[in-house]
């Protein structure tokens, strides 16, 4: 339990970092955790997506694009666990449909 708490704290720290490259690291850590520890993610989905949801609307295009790509990949694995956060995700995704950046729109 201590190890899981430390891992989640690291994830939160990376996702809210000032540097865009560090935020991308956080998005990639979430991607890895969804593969290796889906139960940990499912159990803490609301807290995790409070941080991750901000990356979907990130001010930096690279972070936003990576977050959208990762979201598309992890959605299938998380399935029903996403129910509590789906409305916020849809809102974030919808905002990106009007992006001027074609890569963000495509993601």
From TrEMBL:
SUPFAM superfamilies: ARM repeat (SSF48371)
Designated name of the protein: TGRM2 protein
């Amino acid at each position: 339990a201590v190890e899981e708490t430390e891992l989640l704290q690291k994830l939160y720290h990376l996702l809210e970092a000032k540097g865009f490259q560090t935020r991308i690291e956080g998005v990639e850590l979430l991607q890895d955790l969804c593969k290796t520890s889906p139960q940990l993610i499912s159990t803490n989905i609301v807290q995790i997506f409070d941080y991750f949801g901000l990356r979907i609307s990130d001010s930096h295009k690279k972070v936003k694009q990576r977050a959208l790509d990762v979201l598309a990949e992890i959605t299938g694995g998380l399935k029903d666990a996403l129910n509590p956060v789906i409305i916020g995700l849809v809102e974030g995704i919808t905002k990106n449909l009007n992006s001027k950046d074609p890569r963000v729109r495509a993601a």
